[in-house]
Design a protein that fits this description.
Elements: E1 4-8, E2 13-17, E3 20-24, H1 28-40, E4 43-46, H2 57-69, E5 88-92
């Protein structure tokens, strides 16, 4: 049987949802990652950055925009144990640009 991993980065709290900024308890990408895991099984892994971004949506947007222009690669808090153990890896993340 194939070993499957779904990894995701998501933002909860203030978020853009259905045309306006709302406070959500679970990020959009996290919801999709959980849906994928439920459909195909396997392990679920949340990607977390060392840097804490602003809880204010527009401030966070500007922080992300600056990182995008600088081609920054934020440091991660942790990593999956061994990617070689998996046959299939799904990756989910916000796509702002």
């Amino acid at each position: 049987m194939a070993k499957i991993l779904t990894v995701y980065y998501s933002r909860k709290g203030e978020n853009y949802w259905n045309g306006s900024i709302k406070n959500i308890s679970k990020g959009n990408t996290e919801r999709v990652a959980e849906f994928i895991q439920k459909a195909v099984g396997g392990d679920l892994f949340e990607i977390e950055t060392v840097r804490t971004y602003s809880p204010d949506y527009m401030t966070c947007f500007e922080e992300a925009k600056q990182e995008h222009h600088e081609r920054a690669r934020p440091e991660l808090k942790n990593y999956p144990d061994n990617l070689d153990d998996y046959d299939t890896i799904f990756v989910g993340y916000p796509n702002w640009w």
